[in-house]
Amino acid sequence: MGKIRIKQVKSQIRREGSQKKTLIALGLRKMNQVVEHEASATILGMVNKVNHLVSVEEIK
Protein backbone atom coordinates (compact mmCIF):
# COMPACT_ATOMS: atom_id res chain seq x y z
CA MET A 1 0.00 0.00 0.00
CA GLY A 2 0.99 3.64 -0.38
CA LYS A 3 1.61 6.34 2.15
CA ILE A 4 -0.81 8.97 3.40
CA ARG A 5 -0.20 12.39 4.94
CA ILE A 6 -2.52 13.25 7.84
CA LYS A 7 -2.95 16.80 9.14
CA GLN A 8 -4.96 17.79 12.21
CA VAL A 9 -7.24 20.67 11.18
CA LYS A 10 -9.62 20.86 14.16
CA SER A 11 -9.01 20.88 17.89
CA GLN A 12 -9.44 17.85 20.10
CA ILE A 13 -10.91 20.00 22.87
CA ARG A 14 -14.44 18.91 23.87
CA ARG A 15 -14.13 15.56 22.04
CA GLU A 16 -14.70 12.08 23.39
CA GLY A 17 -11.79 10.40 25.11
CA SER A 18 -11.58 7.71 22.45
CA GLN A 19 -11.16 10.33 19.72
CA LYS A 20 -8.39 12.05 21.70
CA LYS A 21 -6.61 8.74 22.16
CA THR A 22 -6.95 7.97 18.46
CA LEU A 23 -5.31 11.29 17.53
CA ILE A 24 -2.47 10.60 19.95
CA ALA A 25 -2.05 7.09 18.53
CA LEU A 26 -1.76 8.62 15.06
CA GLY A 27 0.98 10.92 16.39
CA LEU A 28 -1.08 14.13 16.29
CA ARG A 29 -0.76 16.28 19.39
CA LYS A 30 -1.09 19.85 18.10
CA MET A 31 -3.18 21.73 15.58
CA ASN A 32 -1.78 21.78 12.01
CA GLN A 33 0.68 19.01 12.85
CA VAL A 34 1.39 16.68 9.93
CA VAL A 35 2.38 13.00 10.10
CA GLU A 36 2.95 10.36 7.44
CA HIS A 37 1.88 6.73 7.77
CA GLU A 38 1.60 3.66 5.59
CA ALA A 39 -1.98 3.26 4.35
CA SER A 40 -2.69 0.04 6.26
CA ALA A 41 -6.15 -1.09 7.28
CA THR A 42 -5.43 -0.18 10.91
CA ILE A 43 -4.35 3.38 10.11
CA LEU A 44 -7.24 3.92 7.69
CA GLY A 45 -9.70 2.76 10.36
CA MET A 46 -8.23 5.22 12.84
CA VAL A 47 -8.43 8.04 10.29
CA ASN A 48 -12.05 7.13 9.55
CA LYS A 49 -12.87 7.45 13.27
CA VAL A 50 -11.54 11.04 13.44
CA ASN A 51 -12.15 12.11 9.83
CA HIS A 52 -13.97 15.26 11.00
CA LEU A 53 -10.79 16.43 12.79
CA VAL A 54 -8.16 15.66 10.15
CA SER A 55 -7.43 16.08 6.48
CA VAL A 56 -5.83 13.25 4.52
CA GLU A 57 -3.92 13.20 1.26
CA GLU A 58 -2.23 10.38 -0.56
CA ILE A 59 1.50 10.59 -1.19
CA LYS A 60 2.62 9.23 -4.53
Given helix and strand content, the structural type is: alpha+beta
SSE run = EHEHE
The side-by-side strand order for the widest beta sheet comes to: 2-1-3
The major β-sheet equals:
3 strands, antiparallel
* Inertia-based shape: globular
User: What's the alpha carbon Rg, rounded to whole Å?
Assistant: 11 Å
Q: Your description of this structure?
A:
With 60 residues, this protein is of the alpha+beta class. The chain has helices at residues 17-26, 41-49, and strands at 3-8, 34-38, 54-59. Helix 1 packs across helix 2. The termini are close together.
Topology, element by element:
Layout: E1 3-8, H1 17-26, E2 34-38, H2 41-49, E3 54-59
Antiparallel strand pairs: 1-2, 1-3
Helix pairs in contact: 1-2
Short note summarizing the structure:
With 60 residues, this protein is of the alpha+beta class. It has helices spanning 17-26, 41-49, and strands at residues 3-8, 34-38, 54-59.
What features would you highlight for this structure?
60 residues, alpha+beta, three-stranded antiparallel beta sheet, 28% strand
